[in-house]
């Protein structure tokens, strides 16, 4: 029952924000964009609070690091669910995050589509030619000169089992070619348990959605350093995710069988 209440509240909240954004854009596109930029992290946090209150979702964030996080920075993370996007906004509320996302999200998703369009995230059409995709990634990187922090999921697609797949360096290289910056590596886990909408109402209560900054890297100088950085980030993220999943297997009721063995990084693409 709680999950059904959450879905109703979630849809109502998103529709309210969507109407607010659209009306605001009619009167002042610039003010609406500024409002979204200032409040989008708080909005994401509100959605997770609702999920915890009504659906029993737990979420655990560890963003503690010894030094202040660099801004702007390229963020790399493993990818399990569309919900990874608002979770990263909660993890890094002071960073103006800009995501590489599927072009299908550009329309028909209340509030979410408007935010992606207004903030000029990189919406990639997987059917487009290679050069068009690379140009979009470079454009995303160039906007870091204005303070934005690009986010790339190096696996290239969501992991349906929670296993951390091989990291590919192509998108990361294109972004860093456009603007050199430090890199923040973040491990995520839990989202794969409700990666489909029909699972959202069933699996939240026994799920802990986690995020942890596993390392902060200085600006890589060339392709070789980027490849080494991604190899190290992959290993740190994989180890953290596997440790979380082993813990969940011991403590959470109904936790699924152990996922397939993780793929080891075999080098840059």
How many β-strand stretches? 7
Q: How many distinct domains? A: 1
Main sheet: strand order: 1-7-6-2-5-3-4
Q: What would the principal axes of the Cα set say about the shape?
A: globular
Q: Assess the beta-strand content as a share of residues.
A: 15-25%
Alpha plus pi helix count? 8
Q: Which short descriptors sum up this protein?
A:
269 residues, alpha/beta, 47% helix, disordered C terminus
Description:
It is a single chain. This protein is an alpha/beta fold. It has one domain. The protein has 8 helices and 7 strands. The chain has helices at residues 2-27, 29-55, 84-91, 112-118, 130-142, 170-178, 197-203, 223-251, and strands spanning 58-62, 74-77, 96-102, 122-124, 148-152, 183-189, 208-217. Strands 1-7-6-2-5-3-4 form a 7-stranded mixed β-sheet, sandwiched between helices. Helix 1 runs antiparallel to helix 2 and helix 2 (29-55) packs across helix 3 (84-91). The protein is globular and about 50 Å long. The N and C termini lie far apart (46 Å).
